[in-house]
Structures are given as C-alpha cells and as structure tokens.
C-alpha cells in the first residue's frame, strides 16, 4: 500500500444543499439516509400540493423533525415554491420565520411537480426585489421549458434567456444555480460578478449521458436536468474540485417508487441519499482531489448561506461494498442509483 493512496478521509460533517425528502411514509424512510451523513439539507418544496407559504414550510419542517429517529441530529432548511402569485409580503414572513432559507424557481413544466411553477419570471420581479432586499436566496431549476429547444440545450439557453436578464435587473439578488449539468453553467458561475453559486450532484460528476443507454434503457439514470456529454461532466469535475467556493454539494436525491421509474413514461430523479458521500468521495478520488472534498462538501455551502460550518466530522474508508438492489421505502420500493453495484468507498 503506497502512502500516496489514502485509505480513509475525515472531513467536517457536510450538508446537502439540494434534497427531495417527499412527505409521509416515504419521507420517514429516506430521512435517516440523509441524516447519517449530513448535518443539514436544503429541503425542496415540490410536494403535492407545493410548499408555497411560510405556514406550509413551518408545518413540513415539524413533520420532518417528528420523523427523525431518536438520537439522530439533523436540521432541515426549508424553502418556498415560487409561483406567479407569491406575494412580496410572503417573502418578509419567510425571512422573519428564521426557518426558510431560500425560494425555489421551477419554470412551469420543467420537472417533477413543477406545474404550479412560474410561467414568466418577469411576473415575479416585485417579489424578487424583496428577496434581494432581505437577502433570501433564489434557488434555480435552470432550464427553459420551450418545447422547441432541444432537451440537452435547455440549461444553456436558460442562462441567456432568463438568468442574464434577471441578474442585470437584480445584481444583488443571491442566486444558487442548482444541479448544474453543463460547461456553460460552470463557466457562467465562475466568471460572473456578484452573489451567485451553484450546486453539483454526485451523479453529474460521475456519469455522462451514455449511462442512460448502456445495454438498453436504464431509467434509474434518468433525472432532470438530464445527464450530458462527457465534455460537460469534465467541466463539472473541474469546477467541483477547483476549491472555488461558488461550487458546493447538492445531491438532488429524488426518490420515486420503482413502478413509476420503470414505466412507459418514467419519472425523472435519481435516488442517492443512501450513498451520496461515498459517490462524491469516489468522484473526487478519481482525479486525485480528495484534498478538495471538504471545501466543496462542508465549507462553501454554509459560507454562501451565511450559516455556521458543522462542528463534528465524518470518516470515509476505502472499502468495497455492494449497493442493495432495492430499498423498502414507506409502502413502496425505491431502486437506488448504483443498485447491485460495488462501490469503492464506505462511510464509517
Ligand atoms: C426531481 C424530483 O423528482 O422531485 N427530479 C429530478 O430529476 N431531479 C425534481 C428536480 O429537482 O428537478
Ligand atoms: Zn431537485
């Protein structure tokens, strides 16, 4: 065993800055998977019906905390779901609550449970101005929904059509460009002036779009924004391992029942909450950048959201283990990403 190959890595406890916990029995089953690794998570509001009001977020947060197994410490950071009708006053209520940490823009129809999302962002400018004033970040699902735009180009077109005009109108608005998937998004965030950051998932660091079609169609690798070409994966790896504090961890773990993924019109979303830190460690290790993992996973997120860094730590060991083929989740079954595969790192 050579000294240059570390066998364990210990880092400050990370946080997940983009997570789907769902609700009810499914939420209660997936929550411990996240809580064993992460201190906090930004919890997405795309429930049915969506979390559009501060009062909904307060109640959802209480349900999450009530579902946390005894002895587990985890802080859900709540978000509101922006609609054409979100009132500017609701933003002040959200900020004053102390429990809402961002407002999520889903362009209407862009992804799972986004039908109630925004039809035209310029309708929300009064509300966004209050967010800019009180310092509440806007979290972007950054894809246009124009059916004439190729699915693989929707993120790049979003930068030109939506993000650049928005940032010109509101340069001080804090923005998280969530789950970026392209070199265009990585360069835009790297080069922009002002308060903008981006999250990157483990699956977009590890895989390109070939993974969806290897040996047949593999629905568990289908998510939105969809996996892109290898050149984009490489750009995301460069951004994530650069040490640039504008890039940080967000799993976008998104559980769906097996039957709705393995379906003629399967849902978008990859389930990675069980093994997220193992996957990120594998990705950073693949380019010899384990020394940059802590900045990305544990420091840059809290610094951007102006929250304290976690005080405790986690350790990962180089040890092969097999991902279960299926997980019993609530009343259903979820097939995790990497089902049945060997993974090279294990959380202690
Ligand atoms: C997410 C979901 O299932 O809620 N799906 C996904 O593919 N990422 C929604 C989202 O974040 O786009
Ligand atoms: Zn998501």
Description:
This protein has helices spanning 24-35, 54-67, 88-97, 125-134, 154-169, 183-191, 202-206, 230-240, 258-261, 276-286, 293-305; strands at 8-12, 16-19, 40-43, 75-81, 100-105, 138-140, 175-177, 196-200, 247-249, 313-322, 327-329, 332-334, 342-347. The protein is an alpha/beta fold and 348 residues long. It has one domain: Metal-dependent hydrolases (TIM Barrel). It has an 8-stranded parallel beta sheet. Strands 1-10-13 form a 3-stranded antiparallel beta sheet. The longest helix is centred in the middle third of the chain and has 16 residues, at 154-169. It is globular. Zinc ion binds at residues 18, 20, 44, 252, 254. Zinc ion (ZN) binds at residues 18, 20, 44, 252, 254.
What are its keywords?
TIM Barrel, binds zinc ion, single chain, 348 residues, 3-stranded antiparallel β-sheet, alpha/beta, 8-stranded parallel β-sheet, binds N-carbamoyl-L-aspartate
């Amino acid at each position: 065993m050579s000294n240059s190959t570390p066998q364990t890595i210990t880092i400050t406890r990370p946080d997940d800055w983009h997570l789907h916990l769902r609700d009810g029995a499914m939420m209660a089953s997936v929550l411990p998977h996240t809580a064993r690794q992460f201190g906090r998570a930004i919890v997405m509001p795309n429930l049915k019906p969506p979390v559009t009001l501060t009062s909904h977020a307060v109640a959802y947060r209480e349900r999450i905390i009530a579902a946390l197994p005894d002895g587990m410490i985890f802080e859900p950071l709540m978000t509101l779901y922006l609609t054409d009708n979100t009132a500017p006053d609701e933003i002040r209520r959200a900020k004053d609550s102390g429990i809402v940490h961002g407002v999520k823009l889903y362009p209407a129809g862009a992804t799972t449970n986004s039908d109630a999302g925004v039809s035209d962002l310029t309708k929300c400018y009064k509300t966004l101005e209050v967010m800019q004033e009180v310092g509440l970040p806007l979290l972007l699902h950054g894809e246009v929904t124009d059916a004439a735009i190729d699915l693989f180009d929707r993120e790049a077109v979003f930068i030109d059509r939506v993000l650049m005009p928005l940032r010109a109108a509101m340069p001080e608005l804090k923005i998280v460009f969530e789950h970026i998937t392209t070199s265009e998004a990585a360069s835009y965030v790297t080069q922009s002036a002002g308060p903008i950051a981006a999250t990157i998932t483990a699956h977009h660091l590890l895989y390109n779009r070939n993974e969806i079609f290897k040996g047949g169609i593999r629905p568990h690798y289908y998510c939105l924004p969809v996996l892109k070409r290898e050149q984009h994966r490489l750009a995301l790896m460069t951004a994530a391992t650069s040490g640039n504090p504008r890039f940080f961890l967000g799993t976008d773990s998104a559980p769906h029942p097996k039957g709705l993924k393995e379906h003629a019109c399967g849902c978008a979303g990859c389930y990675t909450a069980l093994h997220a830190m193992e996957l990120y460690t594998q990705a950073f290790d693949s380019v010899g950048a384990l020394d940059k993992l802590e900045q990305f996973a544990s420091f840059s997120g809290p610094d951007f959201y102006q929250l304290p860094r976690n005080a405790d730590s986690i350790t990962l060991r180089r040890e092969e283990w097999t991902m279960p083929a299926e997980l019993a989740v609530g009343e259903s079954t979820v097939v995790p990403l990497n089902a049945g595969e060997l993974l090279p790192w294990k959380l202690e």
